[in-house]
C-alpha cells in the first residue's frame, strides 16, 4: 500500500471489508503489476490477511507463511481488477480449499481454449445466467457428441461451483473422489453389473455425477442412486454408506441382490426414499434403520426377510408415509407401536407369517389410505378401532384366520373403495352398516362362515362394481334391490343356501359381465330379463333347482363366453337363438331334462367345451360341430342322439376328450379320428356303430382311454393299437370282434384295465400280456379262447379287481403261479374245460373275495382260502370230483364207494387181514427197535453232511443244522452283528454262506427260569409261518434249543421306523412316503384283525416294531412273539405293549396304537404331549401346520390331501371311547380308496375341522 494500513485494519472485522478490491489499495505511485508481479502481490496480501485474523488460533504459523511465500506461485484469480478481499480473506483462512477457485478458472480455460476473464467478470451479474454453453466451447473442435457433452456439462457445472462468490459454498477436492471410490468398490463386488458400464475412473475430476443411475446435488455430491431393474446381483455389504452422507434417495428395487441388509445403511441418515423391494435380501430388519429419521418412503417388500419386527424401529420414523414390507416370511406379531406412525398413508404387511391379533392401535392412523395385512396367519377378531381410520381407501385382510363378526364400525369408512375379507373364518351376519360405505367399488366377503340374509342396504352401494359373497352359509332370497346396483360388473353369490327365485330386477345390471348364482337352492324359472344383461361374459346357474325352459332372450347375450346350466331341472328344447352366441367358449347343459334337437352352436368357431350329457336330447348331431375345430371337450353321452358318425364329425386338432356313449349313433369309425392328435379319451360305447376299428387310431399317442364297447364292431383288433403306450383303459367288450388277439397289446405298458369280453376272439390267450405289468383288471370272458391258461398271467402282481376267463374253451390245469396274485379280489374261471386239482398255493391269494370255478373238470380238495371256503355251492357245480368243507361238496376224507358196498368189503377184509397183521406186527416191532437204536445218529450226521443250502426247508431237527449256520454267521451272537433290541429279545444280522441275509432274534429266557414248552412253541410257529401279508415281516422259521431259542425273519435294510424318524434319513421319508407307511401298517392290521382265523392282535404296535426296507416299504414285526413265549395267553385279552402306544382299555388297543403311530409319522416324533391334550377343549384349536415335521418342506396340495386324511383318521383312532374308534378294515379302506382331504387354506386347517370329519 506504501502507507500504514490503519483505516483498513479497523474495517477488516466488518462485512464491508469483503467488498474491497485489491487494485484500490495498491501503491498508486507504481505502475500496475504485470502477471508475475501480480501473483506475488496477490499471495502477499492473502497471507497478510490470514495473519490479521481476529482469532489468534486461526492465524497461520510463520513456518506456514514461509512455506507459502517460498512455494506458492499460482494464486491469481482473474480478472485482476475484480480480485476482492473476499477471495483473499478466505484463501489463506481455510487452507484446505486454497486451490478451489484456481481450479474453477483452469477448468473453464480448458473447455474454452482461452482464459475466461470476461466470463469471470460477469458471473456476479444477472446476465451470466443467459450465457449459452455452446457459445463458450472451443470452436476449433467439432460439437461434442451426447456422451462427450455429459462430460463437458459436468466439468463446467463443477467449475462454476468452485467460482461461487461465497467461498463457504466451494466444494472440497476430496469428497468427490471418496464417493466414486465407494461406488466403484461396490460395483466390483457385484456378480452381475453390466448396467454399470459407465462406472469407471478416471471420471471427470473424479466425480461420479455423470454415471448411470447417479444424481448429484448443486454441490456435486451424490444425492440419488436409482438402479431399479438393472439386473444387479450381489450384496449390499460392500457399499460404504458412510461415504454417501448426502444420499436422500436410494432405489435398488427389482434386482437380484442377496444377503442381509447392512447395518451401516443407517449412516445415510438423510435418506428420504429407500426402495429395496423385489430382491432376495434375507435376515432380520436391522435396528440401524431407526437412524433414518427423515425417511418418508420405505419399501422392502418381496424379499426373504425373516424374524420379528422390532418395535424400536418406529421410534424415529415420524415422517414415514409409506411402509411396505409385504411378500416376506416375517413372523411374530405386528408391533402395536406402528400405531404411533401418524404420518403413515400406506401400510403393506401382506403375504408374511405374522400371527396374533391386529393391533387396535392401528386405529390411530387417521391418515392411512391403504392397509394390506392379507395372506398371514392373523387370528382373533377385526378391531372395532379400524372404524376410526376414516381416510382408508383400501382394506385387505383376506387369507388369514380371522374370526368373530364383521364390526359395524366399518360403516364409518365412507372413503373406502376396496374391502377384502375373504378366506377367513368370519361368522355372523353381514352388518347393515356396510350400506353406509358408499364409495365402495369392490366388496369381497367370500369363503367365510357368514350366515343370515343379504342386507337390503347394499342397494346404497351404487358405485360397487364387484360383489363377491360366494362360499358362505348365507340364506334367504336374493334381494330385489341388488337390481339397483347398476355399476356392478361382477356378482357372485354361489355356494350358499339361497332359496327363492332369481329376481327379474337383475336384468337392470346391464354392465354386468359375470353372474354366478350356482350351488344354491334357487328354484323357479330363469327370468327373461336376463337377456337384457348384454355385457354378460360368464353366467353360472348350475347345481340349483331351476326348472322350465331356457328363455329365448338368451339370444341377446352375444358377448357370452361361458354358460353353465348343468344339474338343474330345465326341460324343453334349447332355443334356436342360442345360435347367436358366437363368442361362446363353454356350454354346459348336462344333467337336466332337455329334449328336442340341439341348435347349430359354434357358429363363431370359438367353442371349447360342450357338455349336454344325461338329458333326453334327440335328433342328429348339429352339422355346425363338424367344422368346430376349436373343440377341446365334447360330452353328449346318455341322450337319444342319432345319425351317422362317419359324416357328423370332422378333424379336431385340439380335442382332448369326447364321450358319445349311450346314444343311437350308427355308421363306422372314420380314419380321420387319427388326426385328433391331442385326444386322451375316446368313448363311443353303447351305440350302433359297425365296421372295423380303423388302424389310424394307433396314431393317437396321447390316448389314455378307449371305450368303444357294446357296439357291432367286427374284424380283428388292429396291431397298431400296440403303439398307444399312454393307454390305461381299453374296453372293446360286447362287440363282434374276432380273430387272434394281437401280441402287440403286450406293449401297452401303462394299461390298467383291459376288457375284451363278449366277442368272438379265438386261439390262445397271448402270453405277451404279462408285459402289461400295471394291469388291475383283465376280462376275457365269453369268447372262444382255447389252449391252456398262460402261466405268465400269474406275473401280473398288480391284478386287483378281477380276472375273468370264464365261458371259453380253455383246457389244462390251473397255473399254480396264480398264487402270486395276492391283490386279486375276484377270480372267475367257470365254463371252461380245465382239469386237475386247484393248486393248494391258491391259499396265498389273501385278497380274494369272490371265486367261481364251476362247469369244468376239476377234482381234489379246495384250497384253504377264505374265498373258496365261503363261496356259494354254485361256484363249484359241474366238476369231476371237488371236495371240501363246503355245502354241496363231499368231505375230502371219505371214499366215493357206496355204503352197501363198503359193508360187504369190510366183512371179507376181516377174515383175511387179521392173521396177516399179527405176523407183520411182530416183524415191525423188531425193525423199529433196531432203527431207533442205530439210525438216529446216522440221520443227524447225514443231514449235517448234506448241509441243504435252502435254509428255510429244514426247520424240524431241533435247531441243530440251523444252529451251526446261524452261529457261524454271527460268531455265536457276537455284538458286532447286533442291530437292535425288541421287547422279547436281541436282533442280529446274519449273512449266511448261501448268500441269504436274514434277521435273527434271540429270545430272552423266561423270567421264572422255565423252559419254553416245545409242543406249544412249534404249534404257534406253525400258525405264524402261515401268516402271509406284504406288510408283515416274513417269519422264515425258528430254532428251539435247550440253551437258547431264536426266530429267523426277513431282513429289512433301514431298520425300525423309530430310528429313521430320529436320524438324517427322515429327510428322505417325504410326505407321500410317510402316508404310504401309514397306509401299509393299516393294511397289515386289517389283515390280522379281519382276515385271519382266529383274528390276531399285535398288542405291542409302535414305531420300534415297524421296519423299513431300502424303498421305505413298511412291515410290522414282533407279531405274535408274546404268544410264542406264553402260548396259553389269549389273542384278544392279554395286555402287552409299549408305553405311550397302548390304549387305556384292552379292546381295540391296536387301533389306538395305530393312531399314535400315524401321528408320530406325520410329526416326526412321539406325540406324547399332544395325546394328553386331546381330551381338552384346547386341542380343537391346534393347527395342523403346527404339528408337522418341520424338517420337511411344507406339503404341496397333493401331499396336504394325504397328510390331512392321515391325521383325521389318526384322531378318530384315538377316540377315548373304544366303541367309537373305527375298525382297521375301515381305516385301511379309507386310506386306500379316498383321494385325500383338501381343506382350504392349508395354514388354517385345525384339529377341530379334522375331528368333525366323518371318518
In short:
Among the domains are: 22-64, no CATH class; 209-322, Leucine-rich repeat, LRR (right-handed beta-alpha superhelix) (Alpha-Beta Horseshoe), CATH 3.80.10.10; 732-883, Ribonuclease Inhibitor (Leucine-rich repeat, LRR (right-handed beta-alpha superhelix), Alpha-Beta Horseshoe), CATH 3.80.10.10; 960-1050, Phosphorylase Kinase, domain 1, CATH 3.30.200; 1063-1126 and 1134-1252, Transferase(Phosphotransferase) domain 1 (Transferase(Phosphotransferase), domain 1).
Description of the molecule:
- This protein is of the alpha/beta class and 1255 residues long.
- 21% of the residues lie in helices and 15% in strands.
- The strands form 8 sheets. It has a 28-stranded mixed beta sheet, with no helix packed on it. Strands 35-37-39-41-43-45-47-48 form an 8-stranded parallel beta sheet, with no helix packed on it. A 5-stranded antiparallel beta sheet has the order 49-50-51-53-52, sandwiched between helices.
- The chain is elongated, with a radius of gyration of 47 Å.
- Residues 90-98, 895-916, 928-960 and 1124-1137 have low confidence and may be disordered.
Topology (elements, then pairings):
Layout: H1 6-11, H2 35-51, H3 62-71, H4 85-93, H5 100-112, H6 117-122, H7 133-136, H8 146-162, H9 175-189, E1 214-216, E2 222-226, E3 233-235, E4 249-251, E5 256-260, E6 273-275, E7 280-283, E8 297-299, E9 304-305, E10 322-324, E11 346-348, E12 370-372, E13 394-396, E14 418-420, E15 442-444, E16 466-468, E17 475-476, E18 490-492, E19 497-498, E20 514-516, E21 538-540, E22 547-548, E23 562-564, E24 569-572, E25 586-588, E26 593-594, E27 609-611, E28 618-620, E29 633-635, E30 640-644, H10 645-648, E31 657-659, E32 664-666, E33 681-683, E34 705-707, E35 714-715, E36 729-731, E37 736-739, E38 753-755, E39 760-763, E40 777-779, E41 784-788, E42 802-804, E43 809-812, E44 826-828, E45 833-837, E46 850-852, E47 857-861, H11 866-869, E48 881-883, H12 899-934, H13 936-946, H14 960-970, E49 978-981, E50 985-991, E51 997-1003, H15 1014-1025, E52 1035-1040, E53 1045-1050, E54 1055-1056, H16 1057-1061, H17 1071-1090, E55 1106-1108, E56 1114-1116, H18 1121-1125, H19 1149-1163, H20 1168-1173, H21 1184-1187, H22 1197-1213, H23 1224-1233, H24 1247-1252
Helix pairs in contact: 2-4, 5-8, 17-19, 17-22, 17-23, 19-22
GO molecular function, one term: ATP binding
Subcellular location: Membrane
EC number: 2.7.11.1
Amino acid at each position: 500500500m506504501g502507507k500504514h494500513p490503519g483505516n483498513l485494519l479497523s474495517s477488516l472485522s466488518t462485512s464491508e471489508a469483503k467488498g474491497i478490491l485489491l487494485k484500490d489499495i495498491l501503491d498508486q505511485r507504481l505502475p500496475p503489476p504485470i502477471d508475475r508481479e501480480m501473483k506475488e502481490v496477490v499471495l502477499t496480501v492473502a497471507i497478510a490477511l490470514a495473519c490479521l485474523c481476529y482469532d489468534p488460533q486461526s492465524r497461520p504459523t510463520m513456518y506456514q507463511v514461509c512455506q507459502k511465500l517460498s512455494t506458492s506461485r499460482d494464486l491469481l484469480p482473474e480478472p485482476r481488477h475484480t480480485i476482492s478481499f473476499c477471495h483473499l480473506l478466505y484463501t489463506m483462512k481455510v487452507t484446505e480449499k486454497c486451490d478451489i477457485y484456481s481450479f474453477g478458472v483452469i477448468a473453464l480455460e480448458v473447455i474454452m481454449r482461452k482464459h475466461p476473464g470476461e466470463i469471470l467478470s460477469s458471473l456476479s451479474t444477472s446476465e451470466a445466467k443467459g450465457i449459452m454453453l455452446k457459445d463458450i466451447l472451443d470452436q476449433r473442435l467439432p460439437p461434442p457428441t451426447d456422451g462427450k457433452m455429459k462430460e463437458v456439462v459436468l466439468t463446467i457445472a463443477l467449475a462454476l461451483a468452485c467460482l461461487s462468490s461465497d467461498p463457504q459454498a466451494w466444494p472440497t477436492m476430496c469428497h468427490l473422489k471418496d464417493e466414486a471410490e465407494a461406488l466403484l468398490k461396490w460395483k466390483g463386488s457385484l456378480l452381475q453389473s453390466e448396467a454399470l458400464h459407465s462406472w469407471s475412473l478416471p471420471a471427470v475430476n473424479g466425480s461420479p455425477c455423470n454415471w448411470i443411475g447417479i444424481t448429484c446435488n448443486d454441490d456435486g455430491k451424490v444425492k440419488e442412486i436409482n438402479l431399479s431393474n438393472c439386473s444387479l446381483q450381489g450384496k449390499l455389504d460392500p457399499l460404504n454408506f458412510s461415504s454417501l452422507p448426502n444420499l436422500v434417495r436410494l432405489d435398488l428395487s427389482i434386482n437380484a441382490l442377496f444377503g442381509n441388509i447392512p447395518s451401516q445403511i443407517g449412516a445415510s441418515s438423510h435418506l428420504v426414499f429407500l426402495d429395496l423391494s423385489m430382491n432376495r435380501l434375507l435376515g432380520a430388519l436391522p435396528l440401524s434403520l431407526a437412524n433414518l429419521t427423515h425417511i418418508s418412503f420405505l419399501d422392502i417388500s418381496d424379499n426373504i426377510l425373516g424374524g420379528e419386527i422390532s418395535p424400536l424401529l418406529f421410534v424415529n420414523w415420524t415422517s414415514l408415509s409409506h411402509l411396505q414390507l409385504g411378500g416376506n416370511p416375517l413372523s411374530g406379531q405386528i408391533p402395536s407401536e406402528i400405531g404411533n406412525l401418524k404420518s403413515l398413508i400406506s401400510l403393506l404387511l401382506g403375504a408374511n407369517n405374522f400371527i396374533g391379533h391386529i393391533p387396535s392401535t392401528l386405529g390411530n392412523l387417521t391418515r392411512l389410505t391403504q392397509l394390506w395385512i392379507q395372506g398371514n396367519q392373523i387370528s382373533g377378531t377385526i378391531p372395532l378401532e379400524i372404524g376410526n381410520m376414516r381416510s382408508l381407501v383400501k382394506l385387505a385382510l383376506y387369507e388369514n384366520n380371522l374370526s368373530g363378526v364383521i364390526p359395524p364400525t366399518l360403516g364409518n369408512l365412507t372413503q373406502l373403495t376396496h374391502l377384502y375379507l375373504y378366506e377367513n373364518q368370519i361368522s355372523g351376519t353381514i352388518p347393515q352398516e356396510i350400506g353406509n360405505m358408499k364409495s365402495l367399488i369392490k366388496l369381497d366377503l367370500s369363503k367365510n362362515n357368514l350366515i343370515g340374509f343379504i342386507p337390503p342396504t347394499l342397494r346404497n352401494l351404487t358405485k360397487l362394481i364387484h360383489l363377491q359373497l360366494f362360499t358362505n352359509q348365507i340364506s334367504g332370497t336374493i334381494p330385489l334391490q341388488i337390481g339397483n346396483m347398476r355399476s356392478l360388473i361382477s356378482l357372485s353369490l354361489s355356494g350358499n343356501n339361497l332359496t327363492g327365485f332369481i329376481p327379474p330386477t337383475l336384468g337392470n345390471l346391464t354392465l354386468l359381465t359375470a353372474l354366478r348364482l350356482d350351488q344354491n337352492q334357487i328354484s323357479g324359472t330363469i327370468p327373461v330379463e336376463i337377456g337384457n344383461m348384454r355385457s354378460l361374459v360368464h353366467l353360472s346357474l348350475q347345481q340349483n333347482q331351476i326348472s322350465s325352459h331356457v328363455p329365448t332372450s338368451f339370444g341377446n347375450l352375444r358377448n357370452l363366453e361361458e354358460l353353465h346350466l348343468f344339474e338343474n331341472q330345465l326341460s324343453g328344447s334349447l332355443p334356436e337363438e342360442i345360435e347367436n352366441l358366437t363368442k361362446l367358449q363353454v356350454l354346459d347343459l348336462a344333467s337336466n331334462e332337455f329334449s328336442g334337437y340341439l341348435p347349430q352352436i359354434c357358429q363363431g368357431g370359438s367353442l371349447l367345451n360342450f357338455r349336454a350329457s344325461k338329458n333326453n336330447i334327440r335328433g342328429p348331431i348339429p352339422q355346425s360341430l363338424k367344422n368346430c375345430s376349436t373343440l377341446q371337450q365334447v360330452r353328449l353321452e346318455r341322450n337319444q342322439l342319432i345319425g351317422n358318425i362317419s359324416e357328423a364329425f370332422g378333424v379336431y386338432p385340439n380335442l382332448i376328450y369326447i364321450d358319445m356313449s349311450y346314444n343311437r349313433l350308427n355308421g363306422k369309425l372314420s380314419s380321420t379320428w387319427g388326426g385328433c392328435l391331442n385326444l386322451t379319451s375316446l368313448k363311443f360305447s353303447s351305440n350302433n356303430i359297425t365296421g372295423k376299428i380303423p388302424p389310424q387310431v394307433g396314431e393317437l399317442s396321447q390316448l389314455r382311454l378307449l371305450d368303444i364297447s357294446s357296439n357291432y364292431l367286427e374284424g380283428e383288433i388292429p396291431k397298431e393299437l400296440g403303439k398307444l403306450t399312454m393307454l390305461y383303459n381299453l374296453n372293446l367288450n360286447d362287440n363282434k370282434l374276432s380273430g387272434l388277439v394281437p401280441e402287440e397289446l403286450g406293449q401297452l405298458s401303462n394299461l390298467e384295465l383291459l376288457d375284451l369280453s363278449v366277442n368272438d376272439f379265438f386261439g390262445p390267450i397271448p402270453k405277451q400280456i404279462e408285459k402289461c405289468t400295471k394291469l388291475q383288471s383283465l376280462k376275457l370272458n365269453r369268447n372262444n379262447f382255447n389252449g391252456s391258461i398262460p402261466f405268465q398271467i400269474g406275473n401280473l402282481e398288480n391284478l386287483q379287481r378281477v380276472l375273468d376267463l370264464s365261458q371259453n374253451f380253455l383246457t389244462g390245469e390251473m397255473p399254480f403261479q396264480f398264487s402270486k396274485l395276492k391283490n386279486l379280489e375276484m377270480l372267475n374261471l367257470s365254463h371252461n374245460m380245465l382239469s386237475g386239482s386247484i393248486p393248494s398255493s391258491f391259499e396265498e391269494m389273501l385278497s380274494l373275495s369272490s371265486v367261481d370255478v364251476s362247469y369244468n373238470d376239476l377234482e381234489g380238495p379246495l384250497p384253504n382260502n377264505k374265498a373258496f371256503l365261503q363261496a356259494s355251492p354254485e361256484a363249484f357245480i359241474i366238476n369231476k370230483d371237488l371236495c371240501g368243507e363246503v355245502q354241496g361238496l363231499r368231505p375230502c376224507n371219505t371214499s366215493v364207494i357206496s355204503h352197501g358196498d363198503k359193508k360187504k368189503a369190510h366183512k371179507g377184509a376181516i377174515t383175511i387181514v387179521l392173521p396177516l397183521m399179527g405176523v407183520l406186527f411182530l416183524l415191525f416191532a423188531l425193525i423199529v427197535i433196531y432203527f431207533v437204536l442205530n439210525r438216529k445218529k446216522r440221520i443227524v450226521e447225514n443231514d449235517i453232511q448234506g448241509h441243504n443250502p435252502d435254509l428255510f426247508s429244514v426247520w424240524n431237527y431241533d435247531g441243530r443244522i440251523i444252529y451251526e449256520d446261524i452261529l457261524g454267521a454271527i460268531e455265536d451272537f457276537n455284538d458286532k452283528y447286533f442291530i437292535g433290541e425288541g421287547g422279547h429279545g436281541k436282533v442280529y444280522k446274519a449273512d449266511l454262506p448261501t448268500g441269504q441275509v436274514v434277521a435273527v432274534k434271540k429270545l430272552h429266557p423266561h423270567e421264572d427260569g422255565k423252559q419254553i414248552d416245545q409242543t406249544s412253541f412249534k404249534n404257534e410257529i406253525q400258525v405264524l409261518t402261515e401268516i402271509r401279508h406284504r406288510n408283515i415281516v416274513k417269519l422264515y422259521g425258528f430254532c428251539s434249543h435247550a440253551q437258547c431259542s431264536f426266530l429267523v425273519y426277513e431282513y429289512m435294510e433301514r431298520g425300525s421306523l423309530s430310528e429313521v424318524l430320529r436320524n438324517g434319513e427322515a429327510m428322505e421319508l417325504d410326505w407321500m412316503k410317510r402316508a404310504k407307511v401309514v397306509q401299509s401298517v393299516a393294511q397289515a392290521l386289517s389283515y390280522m384283525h379281519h382276515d385271519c382265523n382266529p383274528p390276531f392282535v399285535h398288542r405291542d404296535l409302535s414305531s420300534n416294531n415297524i421296519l423299513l426296507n431300502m424303498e421305505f416299504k413298511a412291515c410290522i414285526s414282533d407279531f405274535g412273539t408274546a404268544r410264542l413265549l406264553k402260548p396259553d395267553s389269549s389273542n384278544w385279552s392279554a395286555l402287552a405293549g409299549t408305553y405311550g402306544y397302548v390304549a387305556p382299555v384292552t379292546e381295540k388297543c391296536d387301533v389306538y396304537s395305530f393312531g399314535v403311530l400315524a401321528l408320530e409319522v406325520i410329526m416326526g416324533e412321539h406325540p406324547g404331549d399332544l395325546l394328553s391334550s386331546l381330551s381338552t377343549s384346547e386341542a380343537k384349536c391346534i393347527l395342523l401346520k403346527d404339528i408337522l415335521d418341520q424338517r420337511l418342506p411344507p406339503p404341496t396340495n397333493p401331499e396336504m390331501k394325504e397328510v390331512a386324511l392321515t391325521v383325521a383318521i389318526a384322531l378318530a383312532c384315538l377316540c377315548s371311547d373304544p366303541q367309537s374308534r373305527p375298525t382297521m378294515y375301515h381305516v385301511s379302506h379309507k386310506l386306500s380308496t379316498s383321494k385325500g382331504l383338501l381343506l382350504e387354506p392349508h395354514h388354517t386347517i385345525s384339529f377341530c375341522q379334522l375331528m368333525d370329519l366323518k371318518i
